[in-house]
Write a structure and sequence with these properties.
The chain is α/β, with parallel strands linked by helices and about 400 residues long. It has helices at about 5-10, 60-65, 90-100, 110-115, 140-145, 150-175, 190-200, 205-215, 235-245, 245-250, 255-275, 290-300, 320-335, 335-340, 355-370; strands at about 1-5, 80-85, 105, 180-185, 225-230, 280-285, 355.
Length: about 400
């Protein structure tokens, strides 16, 4: 038998790794730690190096000797995460916040990022040719049929995509100096796992395997500077779900008071409590929405430098030397595939994460016959790629697309 989840992992892990270690004793530049909106950025700003094109160029050892990380970073080189229940208005708020702060907005990680390839072909259209255990299964399918055996695989795939996106966010901050606003993140993903498990949609073995993956991966990440939680009562969440009228959501057997109450409990009693030991935390009653400008004022009042060396606050971002910043930048920008390989964990004890070897063989045959899937990105002549004979290497990293989830 072969692991179906590992079949999915291979689509994120590249072929080349960069394992060079950096040794440089140059002291780091002191970083400002007070976020400022674009409106307040008046007067002459210090000149910074141009953003480094980390998606197309590697940041190797020799490059790190002349291209330091901290000169690009300023008071807005921060990672912000917007959290909250379903239908709370997180996406709209996160987009507005990013725009006002001059930051990059990354939409909530979703399976469209996984199933739609670099050439725009939706791999879900191949389901008729796939064995039953290899068919696509995304959030829409889960909302309609949460008891499906593929639910566990879906949840692990979503976790994997969130992990991949979080790496992209860190690479962007360290390579360009621009801050990032995330709509939910990998660190809070277990909130959904617990809600699924409490409702009987995940088995005990699948839940245990999820945490095995989580424990093996999250330790490699820097936690966010700020988490903003948009709070909303369960009753109001139910009303909003019906109001926004997404077909597969409003009639779903998943969206129940029990499911939402479990999410709320894990969010408030576990995740927010834990993350607040490192990150700054702002919580707002978002039942009637609110004004982004007021929250920006609250953010601007936060002193991200108000801690000492014994304080766990911001410890992940409190680096002593320029060498340390460069090492992290190379890890997230150049060695993403090394981090993604942490998902290569056997799943033999979880039947719903396994498929027969014959089915796996059929899966790969069908997958490679799809447009843009025969060769790596940039080498598919039938999809319009040019200069193939002149190319000698793959792109330095596989960055997830900025693709919002479909709402049908």
């Amino acid at each position: 038998m072969a692991s179906l989840f590992r079949v999915g992992v291979c689509r994120f892990v590249g072929k080349n790794g960069n394992n060079l270690l950096l040794k440089n004793d140059n002291p780091t530049t002191h970083l400002l730690r007070t976020i400022t909106s674009k409106t307040m950025m008046k007067g002459d700003r210090p000149k910074k190096p141009e953003p480094y094109p980390y998606n197309t160029k590697k940041y190797g050892f020799l490059k790190s000797l002349i291209d330091r990380t901290t000169p690009r970073m300023d008071e807005n080189s921060k990672l912000l995460v917007v959290e909250g229940p379903i239908a709370a208005g997180k996406s709209k708020f996160a987009q507005e916040l990013a725009k006002e702060m001059g930051m990059l907005y990354l939409p909530e990680a979703n399976l469209d990022m996984y199933y739609i390839n670099d050439y725009g072909f939706d791999l879900r259209t191949l389901d008729n040719e796939m064995p039953e255990g290899c068919k696509s299964f995304d959030v829409m399918d889960f909302m309609r049929n949460p008891q499906n055996m593929l639910t566990a695989r879906m949840q692990l795939e979503i976790y994997e995509i969130k992990f991949s996106q979080y790496i992209d966010a860190l690479a962007h901050i360290l390579s360009t100096g621009q801050g990032v606003v995330l709509d939910r993140c990998v660190l809070s993903d277990y909130v959904f796992t617990e809600a699924m498990y409490s409702s009987g949609y995940l088995s005990k073995r699948a839940r245990r395997k999820y945490y095995e993956y989580r424990d093996n991966t999250v330790r490699e990440l820097l936690r966010p500077h700020l988490v903003i939680y948009l709070d909303m009562p369960v009753k109001k969440v139910m009303e909003n779900v019906q109001k926004r009228g997404i077909s597969w959501e409003k009639n779903s057997p998943v969206i129940t008071p029990k499911y939402l109450e479990c999410m709320e409990k894990v969010y408030k009693q576990e995740y927010l409590k834990t993350i607040s030991t490192h990150s700054e935390l702002l919580v707002y009653d978002w039942s009637e929405q609110g004004e982004v400008e007021i929250i920006i004022e609250d953010i601007e009042r936060i002193d991200f430098d108000n801690y000492d060396y014994q304080d766990p606050k911001m410890k992940d971002w409190d680096l002593a030397r320029e060498e340390d910043w460069n090492v992290l930048r190379r890890l997230y920008a150049d060695q993403k595939e090394k981090l993604m390989s942490l998902f290569n964990i056997p799943c033999y004890e979880v039947p719903e994460l396994m498929i027969e070897a014959e089915d796996a063989d059929r899966y790969y045959q069908v997958l490679q016959s799809a447009p843009g899937m025969k060769y790596d990105k940039g080498y598919n002549v039938d999809q319009g790629d040019q200069g193939v004979l002149l190319k000698s290497s793959n792109p330095p990293r596989n960055t997830l697309p900025l693709r919002e989830r479909r709402q049908l």
